[in-house]
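Long-time lurker, finally posting.

We've been working with CLUMA_CG001807, isoform A (Clunio marinus) and I want a structural starting point before designing mutants. I don't trust myself to interpret raw outputs, so I'm hoping someone here can both generate the structure tokens and explain anything notable. Sequence follows.
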Amino acid sequence: MKILVVFLVFWINFAQSAQRSARKFYPLKWDNCPMKNLPAKAYMNAPESFNKEMNVSGTLDVSEEIAGDIVFILETNKCTLNMKTCEKFTTLNIRDFCDRFTDKNQFFYEALASVQPEFKCPIKAGNYTMFPTIVDLSVTNMFPLDGYVWVASFKFISITNKGKTKKIVFCMNIEIKVVREKI
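Top reply, 14 upvotes:
Generated this for you. Predicted structure of CLUMA_CG001807, isoform A:
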């Protein structure tokens, strides 16, 4: 009888675990935009796939000082897995981005805190290294991301001359497939 109970408990647990699934991210593209003469270019290392945490590292090459107010713009599109249909999803603008570098509540804080030499504004010309950092993406569990390829463009825009001059100083295109897989 004990063997039957143990077997039954094992079978129930096995059946439940077979139904469990987890979100999985597959970076497909992680490239600088094809624009010429941008003063900042990034060369990132990211895993082939990850769940709720991404281990990222890389370098940032800055060819000239980047001054002024920095605005971070994230434009996202939601595409079907076969990439035949895409629709604009959202645009996020973060003004005064430099003021947020040291804010531990920002999703990018851990990544920027690992950069050497220290990443601060104005951003000096030079080579910056982002040492391996874990970026926690568990906040994305609140959003219905599964079953799509997310096409995103990250841009930094420098605003100078009392808002009269706007210049794209950095741009990166990213594509990430997000699916739910059994665990």
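Before you design anything, note these points.
Strands lie at 21-32, 40-45, 53-62, 69-79, 86-94, 115-116, 126-136, 148-160, 165-182.
The radius of gyration is 21 Å.
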